[in-house]
Amino acid sequence: MNKSACSIPKPMSETIHFPFDDKKAAQVAARLVEKKGGRLEYLHVMKMLYAIDRLALAKWGQPVIGGQYCSMNKGPVISEVLDLINGTLKRPTWSEHLQTSGINLVIRKTAGTDELSRAEADLVDTVFVMLGNRDRWDIVAEMHDEFKEWENPGKSSRPIKVEAILKAVGKGSLEITEIAKEAAYYNRIDAALDR
Predict the structure, then answer these.
(1) Is residue 97 within 8 Å of residue 108, measured between CB atoms?
(2) Is 0.70 surpassed by the pTM of this model?
(3) Greatest C-alpha distance within the chain
(4) Nearest partner of 157 among 76, 85, 88, 81, judged by Cα
């Protein structure tokens, strides 16, 4: 088993979990990198991927990529994405389309968007317009200040519950409860299909 970037185990009280979709992660990351000419600093990519999932949770009550969200000293991240970038997690779809080169992600092969809905692809493009040409350190500082779910973990990491993100984007407790029920329902279906 690979050690995750967010090394603290998920709390037992967490009620909402969205599985990590490595194919969507690869397509979204590749789309962002392609928009910058095929090379983009991976910290910048990680910030935009987190922002995409956060906006998707605000709009639809479900993320585009999913996975374990994590507070790190440079802001919130999707743990599995950091693991893919660091090479501690291997997924063929990711390595077919992207590679880490120094502090950059570089396109190896166009990934397309067949895993994304039109609304998801539009959301990716919207986040790129908002953040794609900004300085990555300005984005980090803004996330520290404005993303209330992020907690400074010092030199470690700390899991971010989906419920905390939903609360931070303005969802009320009844809506969060409904999102939790729907997520649990689909997780049960996925588990049954995997048997």
Answers:
(1) yes
(2) yes
(3) 45
(4) 76
pLDDT tens for each residue of 15-54: 799 999 999 999 999 999 999 999 999 999 999 999 999 9
Q: What is the mean pLDDT of residues 176-190?
A: 88
Q: Give the Cβ contact number of residue 71 at 10 Å.
A: 25
Which two three-digit tokens encode residue 169? 């984007």
Residue 12: beta bridge partners?
none
What is the DSSP secondary-structure string of 89-152? Answer: S--HHHHHHEEEETTEEEESS---STTS-HHHHHHHHHHHHHHTTS-HHHHHHHHHHH-TT---
**Residue the block writes with tokens 């790190």:** 72
- Specify the residue for token string 């009320």: 172
Residue type, 165: I
* Other beta carbons within 10 Å of 145: 9
What is d(CA 190, CA 46) in angstroms, rounded to the nearest whole number?
27
Query: Tokens at residue 132, please?
Result: 């794609």
